[in-house]
Design goal:
- The structure is a single chain.
- It contains two helices and twelve strands, in the order H-H-E-E-E-E-E-E-E-E-E-E-E-E.
- The chain has 282 residues and is α+β, with helices and mostly antiparallel strands.
- It has two domains: 101 residues; 157 residues, Beta Barrel (Thrombin, subunit H).
- A six-stranded antiparallel beta barrel has the order 1-2-5-4-3-12. The protein has a six-stranded antiparallel barrel with strand order 6-7-8-11-10-9.
- Strand 7 and strand 8 form a beta hairpin.
- Helix 1 packs across helix 2.
Length: 282
């Protein structure tokens, strides 16, 4: 036998719900435009129904607060994400600006490097030595740009104006070349001391001074003296280009010669260099 389903809502709850709805409708009517004359009634009813309104607020306010909180949280999170993105963009812009400043400074320094009428080609260093034992750099100019093996490479100095010998080209491809640094043990170039005495300077490895041997002991050599390229006719290096400064001079055991150690002046960390477009000796 089926029994009729009883409503789970008691008469008291139905009465309370009805009272809340009636209160809401009454307040809406009293708030309509053009009900100014009803202000006294509105005031009386508002006071009388305030307990009911308070009860309704107590029921619905947590829901409203929760909704506003959820919406507010999403808005704050979105704004935070936008600010983070703007901050990352600003950091990227600062890094790019700093890089451009460094390259601009390097190019200005290269403008001071003169080659006495010889043609040169500016190149950018695109690959540093792979290790402390690798005495070479790679540049972005190659055989397709007129660069040949044996050509001299010069760059700005570590301090002051002017240029210094960086090395020479040892390998070329279509759009790339590899140069050997003057610190390489395989590097050698003709040089002249401040006194005019000529000799051959050689590398002894990265981090080590350059070396000029067999300098007559009668030649006066002072610490800090400049050493220049000699510019002899068959040299690939322009004349009077700074190579380094004397670090020390040591006489041989027989007292006839002296070995001169020279600190290189070229900035080995240069971003830009110049290749001297002078054919090497045959």
């Amino acid at each position: 036998m089926a029994f009729p389903r009883r409503s789970s809502r008691s008469p008291r709850s139905r009465y309370t719900l009805g009272l809340l709805l009636l209160t809401a409708i009454t307040l809406l009517v009293l708030d309509l435009p053009g009900t100014g004359p009803l202000q006294p009634v509105r005031d009386v009813l508002a006071g009388a129904l305030s307990p009911v309104r308070s009860a309704g607020d107590a029921v619905f306010e947590p829901v409203a607060d929760g909704w506003r909180g959820a919406v507010g949280y999403d808005e704050v999170k979105d704004e935070n994400d936008r600010l983070k993105a703007r901050l990352e963009d600003a950091k990227g812009d600062d890094a790019e600006l700093e890089r451009l400043k460094v390259e601009n400074t390097a190019l200005k320094k290269l403008e001071d490097v003169k080659t006495q009428g010889l043609k040169t080609r500016t190149a950018r260093v695109v690959s540093d030595p792979s290790s402390s034992f690798d005495p070479t750099l790679e540049i972005d100019q190659g055989s397709g740009d007129g660069v040949k093996n044996g050509m001299a490479v010069i760059t700005g100095t570590t301090s002051g104006a002017g240029g210094g010998v960086l090395g020479r080209i040892v390998e070329t491809r279509g759009g790339r070349s590899r140069l050997e640094l003057l610190t390489s043990p395989d590097f050698a170039a003709g040089v002249a001391l401040t006194t005019g005495e000529r000799g051959v300077i050689e590398g002894q490895g990265r981090g080590e001074p350059l070396l000029i041997e067999q300098v007559p002991a009668t030649v006066e050599v002072e610490k800090g003296d400049f050493v220049y390229t000699s510019g002899i006719e068959d040299s690939v290096f322009p004349a009077d280009l700074k190579v380094g400064r004397v670090h020390s001079a040591q006489k041989s055991s027989d007292g006839q010669y002296q070995s001169v150690e020279v600190d290189p002046l070229a900035d080995l960390s240069s971003v830009y260099v110049k290749v001297v477009l002078k054919d090497p000796p045959a």
